[in-house]
Amino acid sequence: MSRITARDFDFNLLPVLFAVAETGSVTAAAARLYLTQSAVSAALGRLKAAIGAPLVTRHGRGVVLTERGAQLVAEARPHLDAIVQAALQPARFDPKTSDGTIRIGLADIADEWLVPPLLRVLADEAPRMRLICSPVQFRTVGEALSTRTIDLAVTVADELPASVARRPLVHTRFVCLFDPRFVRLGTRPTEGAYLAQDHVIVSYNGDLRGIVEEIYGRERRVRCSVASFSSVGAIVDGGRIVATVPAIFAPQILALRPHLRIAPIPFAHEPGSIDLLWPKSLDGCPASGFLRDAIIRIAGAQETWARKQRRAA
Fold first, then answer.
1. What pLDDT does residue 263 have?
2. Which CATH number is associated with domain 174-264?
3. DSSP structural state of residue 53
4. Distance from the CA of 269 to the CA of which of 6, 60, 120, 227 falls in 20 to 30 A?
5. One fold for both 3-88 and 103-171+276-312?
6. Start-to-end C-alpha separation, the chain
7. Closest listed residue to residue 249, CA positions, set 301, 302, 180, 298
8. CA dist., res. 171 & res. 274, Å (int)
């Protein structure tokens, strides 16, 4: 065959030839392939034209392969079988040797409690796997997952596209964060004392309303709005200002600033959920599945630790 003919060769014709060779009959081959006899005959004709030689010849009431046809079946059949087997065989994945790169979208509160233990897991179980972490928030995460800008996310999320799967990871309540050298709230602040303070909030809208105003209907004296929880420890430290942060994030702040204090917010509220999100198209991806399982294990350990801390308190 010429190079152009090889490029344009219709490999779908080969299974027709194989069926004819096995059954010795155009009629039987058509029945096996759920084709008409004329379609099988036409396929054999096209294959003959492509090869440039007859591939079958009549023999009694059936057909047999010519020498060229027998040669083609003998040489092509193993290759086609190997291709089919490779397509049907589950993807092999060994975390010890995988050098894939996974893109993770993270809420800012997830950086410190998730990434360090996740990297330790990878060091032990998948030492060549790499992560690219980027910030996301609940208004952008759905599109980022749908467009495969990221492969999975750990964040707070509201409504999501149908193409995105969700698994709750961690349930966390909110706590007050303050500097006791300048703010007198105590270990169990009253609602009046809490609302009387100046507050710093995190707002993804870039306004002066946070979750306490929007979800819980309390109006605080908001002096400052920032776009990330990562800066609230520094803002609270040394000032007469209070922050309201997820309880899961508080230990990271206190580890750096142990002189700060936390206290429960003084009104009933439902715990929020930090979710693991991923495109449903990656349900069967072993690398993505491995990383999701690792994140779920880490989150479970975090919740167990948080429950022990609450009982101890």
1. 95
2. 3.40.190.10
3. S
4. 227
5. no
6. 81
7. 302
8. 6
Instruction: Give whole-number Cα distances, 265 to 98, 246, 271, 306, in Å.
Output: 45, 11, 12, 17
Contacts 24+ apart (CB under 8 A), 71-76: 72/17, 73/17, 73/18, 73/21, 76/14
The Cβ of residue 187 has, within 10 Å, a number of other Cβ atoms equal to 9
Q: Collect all residues with Cβ–Cβ distance below 8 Å to 47 and sequence separation of at least 6.
A: 13, 14, 16, 17, 55
Distance of CA 26 to the CA centre of its chain: 49
Pairing of strands 130-135, 152-155: unpaired
Q: Quickly state the pLDDT bin for 4 (edges 50, 70, 90).
A: very low
Which segments of the chain are extended strands (E)?
56-59, 62-65, 101-106, 130-135, 152-155, 164-172, 174-178, 198-202, 221-226, 242-246, 261-264, 272-279
Calculate ∠ Cα 176-178-184, nearest 5°. Answer: 100
**Domain coordinates of the chain in residue numbers?**
3-88, 103-171+276-312, 174-264
Q: What's phi and psi for 89, nearest 5 deg?
A: -75, 135
Locus of tokens 């609940």: 138
Residue 137: per-residue pLDDT? 83
In what helix (H) or strand (E) does residue 312 lie, and over which residues does it extend?
helix 286-312
More confident residue, 11 or 7: 11
CATH number for the segment(s) 103-171+276-312: 3.40.190.10
pTM over 0.85: no
Q: Report the pLDDT value the prediction gives residue 307, as an integer from 0 to 100.
A: 63
Element spanning 112, H or E: helix 110-125
CATH number of 3-88: 1.10.10.10
pLDDT in tens, 15-66: 888 888 899 999 998 898 888 999 989 988 888 888 888 988 888 888 898 9
